[in-house]
Amino acid sequence: MREPDPTAATIAARIEMLYGQPLGVLEAHSGAGPHNSMLTALIGSLTDLRLAERTITFHRDRLLQLAHPERSIGSFDAGHLLDNARRISEAVAARDAHAKTLSAVLQSLHRVPVPATEAPPAAPAPLPAPAAPAR
């Protein structure tokens, strides 16, 4: 049996775990910082993944509405059925591509442990004063 595709919620949880902060804080941070950071790229791809999921839900619901058993299907409706099915297919492809890419990137990243607070290294012992020249 095939493992279910990661959803935006599971990807968001993995980003939060990686950065150790809630997604809202991370989104605010990525929006305020440089736009070429890994965090900004992850947040941008997550936004695209969420959009694909919403698109799938919208067009699936519309398709179910158009194909309701009590509704007659005319030539006008047939075009809408086909269009919604095509849009679902496109959104699923986009969702799968974003999920696969995000999963691969997140799998390659890991949290670096914060080093323990150490005392600064001791300064080297002063050199002895040079001996006075012999006379």
Give short descriptive properties of this protein:
0% strand; mainly alpha; 135 residues
Largest sheet: none
Q: Could you say which overall geometry the principal axes of the C-alpha atoms support? A: rod-shaped
Low-confidence stretches: none
Radius of gyration: 28 Å
- Count of domain modules: 1
Q: Give the topology string: H per helix, E per strand.
A: HHHH
The first-to-last residue Cα distance is: 94 Å
Put simply, the count of helices is: 4
- Arithmetic mean of pLDDT: 83
The structural class is: mainly alpha
Secondary structure: number of strands: 0
**What share of residues is helical?**
55-70%
Give a brief outline of the structure.
Residues 121-135 have a biased composition (Pro residues). The protein is mostly helical and 135 residues long.
List the helices and strands and how they pair.
Layout: H1 8-19, H2 23-32, H3 38-66, H4 75-108
Helix pairs in contact: 1-3, 1-4, 3-4
Notes on the protein architecture:
Residues 121-135 have a biased composition (Pro residues). Residues 116-135 are annotated as: Disordered. The protein has 135 residues and is an all-alpha fold. The chain has one domain (8-108). Helix content is 63%, strand content 0%. The chain has helices at 8-19, 23-32, 38-66, 75-108. Helix 3 packs antiparallel against helix 4.
